[in-house]
Amino acid sequence: MKVCVMGLGYIGLPTAVMFASCGFRVHGVDINQEVINSLSLKKPHIEEPGLEETLGHVIEEGNLSFSKEPEEADAFIIAVPTPITKEKKANIDYVRNAMEMIVPCVKEGDLIILESTVPPGTVEKVMIQELQKTGLKVGEEVFVSHSPERVLPGKLFEELVSNDRIVGGINQESADRTATLYKHFVKGTIHITDAKTAEMVKLMENTYRDVNIALANELAQISDQLGCDVWEAIRLANFHPRVNIHQPGPGVGGHCIAVDPWFLHEASPDKAKLIETARRINDETPIYVGGLIEQITEFITKPKVALLGLAYKGNIGDMRESPSLKVISYLKKLNVEYTIYDPYVESKMEEQVSTVEEAVNGADCIIMLTEHSAFKELDYKKLYELMNNHNIIDTKNVLDEKLLCNIGFQYKKVGKGAS
Ligand code: SAJ
Hints:
By secondary structure, this protein is an alpha/beta fold. Helix content is 41%, strand content 14%. It has 2 domains: 2-188, Rossmann fold (3-Layer(aba) Sandwich), CATH 3.40.50.720; 217-413, NAD(P)-binding Rossmann-like Domain (Rossmann fold, 3-Layer(aba) Sandwich), CATH 3.40.50. The radius of gyration is 24 Å and the shape is elongated. Residues 306-401 form the UDP-glucose/GDP-mannose dehydrogenase C-terminal domain. This is Nucleotide sugar dehydrogenase. Keywords: NAD, Oxidoreductase.
């Protein structure tokens, strides 16, 4: 059986590699020639534990090929991005383009699966409509489903196998065929539903998380005002059997949680009031963090800030929608001098330096924005000696407050107001 995967990004590439490692013949398609070139040299353009090794294997075994054009296959998987416009509307052009590209290759009996996160109604409005151009009877001669990806970057290969999977078919036959295909590697339960419900499930999952994180961020700011420790309060509240408050931080990044709730808002702007407010709270949280830096460095002439962490979350090299970028913009507006250190991310920013010592040298304030494990292991005594003033702001509650205070740092944790 042959699978053609459209879009070789964070989801498409690991999925293609996974099917190929199960013995399928897989053809991966991407519109970016540089991506094709680099993959053909067995070099993934994204970072994910285990990816490079398995990619090498499956290419050597002859199970995985790449090009800019789709080939005939028995199943097509669409895993292209669905970005958001400035007006906070979903751009589904990549899904439409991918469908247009596969239409000439689709033959009777084929299965087309959409993994991209999409606004409700996309399967019907885009997929089914495009497939009608094949002249085949959709649902009878060609089968369609939505099986949204729900894997966590950084744990992708583990979660592709162990997570439950939602399969929303346009009819039972489409769903059954999709479930059979994924069963080759999915060990979690495969839950069958209709396509529109599957679209909704995916958006609800990420919205649930966004709203909860917004609540945590709001509680952190209230705690700052009240002079109590939100982290301890959340820890204790979560001992209640029906409470699960999320963790505050510098804001919400990544290409999913910070984006997907807008798709629901777009579908129903009058009703999505809580969803919209939560999105705005999380978007404004980096500005709150910038304000804290401003307060702390207020009386220092020409303050210098060392930012630790560019990635949107710990132990990964992905800075899409990262709150750090908004904190940086805030500092730029203030005209504050800053350096950036992130051992996981290679940015083109000239302020990024390659050692933490370089970043911290002569600084007045360290701000920890990403919970990379490596940041817990730093030699803070040495960093203290390199600094001019000794402020440190922890937005993730991962540093050892006692140790830092003993060294002599002025330690500030977001969500723990001075009592
Ligand atoms: N964050 C907090 N507080 C928390 C949890 C997360 O501030 O309590 C922040 C993180 O620091 C990060 C952002 O939220 O900036 C998102 O991180 P994440 O690890 O929660 O999620 P993603 O975006 O990496 O992946 C999510 C996952 N969805 C859910 O957990 C419901 C993943 O399973 C999805 O596949 C992915 O979105 C996606 O592609 O939709």
